[in-house]
């Protein structure tokens, strides 16, 4: 599966992607529990997902990770702290079995309240690479609010 990247600010999206949606749309969805799939720019390392011209962009609504990305000075590749198709972890103890395979584990605290099942769904992944349309790649935890913004506020049409 392709890797998404984490950015620290909405302004960074314009550096790493060709954005064909209104800036307000980005600001309405980011930071938040949404991954936006856009056409990648030449600024991204060409070895990241070389089989696709698209990239997933995520800006979590979590000050620690936003600060980490800013200090790092560039996008961070994202992966889940769980095996593919398993429910998302809500705290670091839940993926303790993976720790021996990791170079570093940073505990930024629990996600959400640490128990709500909707947080286990992961981010809502939306393809915005086709102008005027959107495609839901993964429903995730913010499907209703995200589709309402895309359709009602910005008039985008589902791409199915």
Automatic annotation (TrEMBL):
Domain YrdC-like per the UniProt entry, residue ranges: 1-142
GO CC annotation terms, alphabetical: mitochondrion; plasma membrane
Protein keywords: Cell membrane, Cytoplasm, Membrane, Mitochondrion, Transferase, Transit peptide
Catalyzed chemical reaction(s): L-threonine + hydrogencarbonate + ATP = L-threonylcarbamoyladenylate + diphosphate + H2O
PROSITE patterns xrefs: YRDC
Keyword Cytoplasm (UniProt): yes
Native source organism of the sequence: Mustela putorius furo
Function (record text): Cytoplasmic and mitochondrial threonylcarbamoyl-AMP synthase required for the formation of a threonylcarbamoyl group on adenosine at position 37 (t(6)A37) in tRNAs that read codons beginning with adenine. Catalyzes the conversion of L-threonine, HCO(3)(-)/CO(2) and ATP to give threonylcarbamoyl-AMP (TC-AMP) as the acyladenylate intermediate, with the release of diphosphate. Participates in t(6)A37 formation in cytoplasmic and mitochondrial tRNAs. May regulate the activity of some transporters.
Enzyme Commission number(s): 2.7.7.87
GO BP terms, alphabetized: regulation of translational fidelity
Membrane topology: Peripheral membrane protein
Family statement drawn from the similarity comment of this UniProt entry: Belongs to the SUA5 family.
Subcellular location: Cell membrane; Cytoplasm; Mitochondrion
Protein name per the record: Threonylcarbamoyl-AMP synthase
Major location category of this protein: membrane
GO molecular function: double-stranded RNA binding; L-threonylcarbamoyladenylate synthase; tRNA binding
Domain of life: Eukaryota
Record's subunit section: Interacts with RSC1A1.
């Amino acid at each position: 599966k392709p890797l998404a990247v984490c950015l620290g600010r909405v302004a960074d999206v314009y550096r790493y992607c060709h954005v064909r949606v209104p800036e307000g749309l980005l600001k309405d969805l980011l930071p938040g529990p949404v991954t936006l799939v856009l056409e990648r720019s030449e600024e991204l390392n060409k070895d990241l997902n070389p089989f696709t011209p698209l990239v997933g962009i995520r800006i979590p609504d979590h000050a620690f990770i936003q600060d980490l990305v800013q200090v790092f000075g560039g996008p961070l590749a994202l992966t889940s702290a769980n095996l593919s198709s398993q429910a998302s972890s809500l705290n670091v103890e839940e993926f303790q079995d993976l720790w021996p395979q990791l170079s570093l584990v940073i505990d930024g605290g629990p996600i959400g309240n640490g128990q709500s099942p909707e947080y286990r769904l992961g981010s809502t992944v939306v393809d915005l690479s086709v102008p005027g349309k959107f495609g839901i790649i993964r429903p995730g935890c913010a499907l209703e609010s995200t589709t309402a913004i895309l359709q009602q506020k910005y008039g985008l049409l589902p791409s199915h």
